[in-house]
Specification:
Blueprint lengths: L8 H8 L5 E5 L5 H14 L7 E5 L2 H15 L7 E4 H12 L10 E3 L1 H14 L9 H13 L4 H6 L1 H9 L5 H14 L2 E3 L2 H12 L1 H10 L2 E4 L7 H10 L6 E5 L14 H4 L1 H4 L4 E5 L1 E2 L4 H11 L11 E2 L7 E6 L2 H19 L6 E5 L5 H10 L4 E3 L9 H14 L4 H7 L9 H14 L3 H6 L1 H4 L2 H23 L2 H11 L2 H6 L4 H21 L9 H12 L12 E5 H4 L4 E6 L16 H15 L2 E10 L1 E4 L2 E4 L4 H5 L5 E3 L64 E4 L3 E9 L6 E6 L3 E6 H4 L1 E3 L2
Parallel strand pairs: 1-7, 1-8, 2-3, 2-6, 4-5, 6-7, 9-10, 11-16, 11-19, 12-14, 12-15, 13-14, 15-16
Antiparallel strand pairs: 17-18, 20-21, 20-24, 21-22, 22-23
Amino acid sequence: MDYLAGLNPSQRAAVEQTNGPVMIVAGAGSGKTRVITYRVAHLIKQGVDPFQILVLTFTNKAAKEMRNRITAVVGDEARNIWMGTFHSVFAKILRAEAEHIGYPRNFTIYDTDDSKSLLRTILKEMQLDDKLYNANFVYNRISSAKNNLISATEYSSNEQIQADDFSNGRGQLGQIYLTYTQRCYKAGAMDFDDLLFKTNVLFREYPEVLHKYQHKFKYLMVDEYQDTNFSQYLIVRKLAAINENICVVGDDAQSIYAFRGANIQNILNFEKDYPDLRVFKLEQNYRSTQNIVNAANSIIANNKDQLKKNVFSENEQGEKIRVNRAFSDNEEGKIVAEAIAQERALHGGKYLDFAILYRTNAQSRAMEEALRKINIPYKIYGGTSFYQRKEIKDLIAYFRLVFNPSDEEALKRVINYPRRGIGDTTVDRILVAADQQQITLWDVIGNAASYLDGRSAGAVGAFAVLIQGFQVVAKNHSAFDAAMHIAQHSGILKDLYADKSVEGLSRYENIQELLNGIKEFSEREDIAEKGLDVFMQDVALLTNDDNDKDPNADTVSLMTIHSSKGLEFPNVFIVGLEENLFPSQLSLNSRSELEEERRLFYVAVTRAEKKLFLSYATSRYRWGTLNNCEPSRFLDELDPKYLELDFRAKPAPQPGSTFEGERTAWQQRDVFTKPKPKIAPKTTSILPKAHTPTPGFAPSDTSNLQVGMEVEHERFGFGKVLNLEGGKGEVKATIFFKELGQKQLLLKFAKLRIVG
C-alpha cells in the first residue's frame, strides 16, 4: 500500500472509499488528478477488472496524463481501462451499436468546419439571408438544442422556442435544423454533438443496450463534473443506475463554461440524486501562497450558489497582491511589461514563469505591443497573435490596398470580402488578363470594362470605385477617421455584427479593439504625423516577426482566463479589471451569469503560485470615443488586507469602506426562452476613478508656461510643471500629476489648462 503513503488524510479517505456514490470536491491546487489516478489504481489493486472501470474526462491531455500515472502504479493493466473524453468513449460505443439507430459502423464524424459547410449549403438552397442566418449562429443554436436533448422535431413543435425565433426574425431555424439532421443521416454522418445526443437516444430506445453497458461498467469516475451539460449528466446517471459505484470529481467554484452548455446545478444537486452520497473535500491548496489562497476565498464567498469548503494553504505567507491602475489600456500594457522586466532583473527566472490573463481576446493587442517595445518574447496560448487574426488581417488588407493598389495579396484577400458578387472565376479572369498584358491586377480592375464583360465588369468596377473613395478619405482625414470609414463602408463591420455566435462576438470585439488602437494613435501627443499610412508602418514593424517564433522558446504566456483553466504559473497578471469588461457587460443580466463571472475571476486568481498582479484602466476607447471606466466590483470584493494598492499616488483608506459585491437574488435564466432580469449596479468602489475635467474645460496658451505652474490635463487630471526642455515648437514639459505621477508631454499637443 506504499503508493498511498504520499496522500494527505482527505485525499486518502477519498481514494479508499471505492463503493457507492462519492463526490470529491477538489479545491484549486488540491491534488485532484493525483486522487483520481490513485483511486483508479487502488480499485485495480483491490481486484477490480480494469475493463469494468470507466473514467470520463474533458480533454485527451487529461486522459493521457491519468493513464500514464496509473500505469506507473499498476503496470500495463492500465491499458485496459475505458478512459477518455466523453466524445471519444461514446463514439466507440456508438460504432459498436450503430445498427440499432440506423447508422453504419463506419459513420463519419463531422468536425465543426464540416458542419458549418453543410449549413451554408442548406442556407443557400433555402435562399435565406446569410447575415440573418449566419452559419456560426445557426450551428451554435443547433448545438445548444442537442446538448439540451431537444431534437429537430421537438424544436419545431415547441411553442416557446418558435415564438422566440420568430420574434428575432429567424422563424426558419426549425426547418434548417430538420434539414441539417436529415442530410447528416443520409450521409451516414454524426456531428460532434450527435455523439452525446445519439448515445442518449440509443440508451432511451434500446434498454437492452443500456443494460449491457450498465453491467459492463461497474465503476464510473467523472472528472471536472461541474462542466457537464444536461446530455452528459443523463448518460452518466443512466450508466450508474444499477451499481451506483459512481465517483464525480470537481469544483463548483471553477464552473466557467455555461456558454458551452455546462450546468453547475449538476454538481450542486448531486446529493439529491444520491441521498446516501459520501462527500470528500480536498481543501489543502499545494499550489499558491497563503495570501493568494485567502484572497481567492474572499472572492468566492460572495457567491450564494456553492458547495461550502474551507480552502487553505500551508505554503509560505507570500507577498500581497499588487493592484495597479493605468489611465489607458496602452499604459496598462506598459505597466505589465515593465513589471515583468523588473521581476526578472531582481529575481531571475524564465519568461515561462509569467502569464498575462485577460477576459477577451481583443485585450491582447495592448499587451503584445507593450511587450514587443521592450523586447520581451511572448506566445499567445490557445489563440492567435492579435495582428494575425483573420478579421484583423482582412481590415488591414483594405488599409494596405488604399496605399498600394498593386498589393496583389491584399487585393485577392478582400476583392470579394464581404461578398460582392466577384467569384473565383472572375478573379481568375483578372489574373489571366494581368498576366497576358503584363500589367498589375489593379490596372485590370481599374479598367474592368475593357477586360471583363456583363455583370462581372460592373461588380469589379464598383470595387475599384470603392477603393478609390477610400484613398481620398485616407489622404484627407486622420488615421482613425479613415479607418472607421473603411471598416464601415467596406461592409466588414456589418458582416461581423450579423454573427451573434460567441466566435462572431469575439471577432467583432477584435475589430473594435483595432480601431481603438488607431484612435489612441491618432491622439498621441508626441508625434506630428498621424495618418493611417504612418500607423500602417508601425503595424508592419509589430507583425514582422509573428511567424518566426520558436514554439519551445522561453516566452511569456498570454491567454484568456478560460484558456488558463488547469494551468499554473509562478507570476500571474490579470488585466482589464473594469466594470462591463470583467465582469462582462453581457453577464450582468442575472445572478447566475454574474456568479459565473466571479468564478472565472476565482479561476484566474488561483492560477498564481507566488505572485499575483491585478490591473485596470481608468479609460478605454470604444468605437473611437474615450470612456471613463470604473474598477471592477471584484476588486472591491477582495479582502483589502491581502492587497497592496501600487499607485503612484495612493488614495487614503476610507473608514467604514465595504467590499461587499452583488447579493440580489435572481431566477436562473433558461437556455432558450426565459427573459433576462436586470441586476443591481456595482457597489461604490474605494478605488480611484478616472479624472473628470473641470466644467467648461478649455486648453490655455502654453507659450509662456513656466516651471512650478499648476495645470490641468483633460485625462490625467491636475499636476505641477517640474521641467521644460526643447526648442521653439518642440518644447517638452515634465509634469507630476497627482493621480498618475510623472509624465512628459509635447506642449504643442498636450492641451493643458493653466490653473495658476
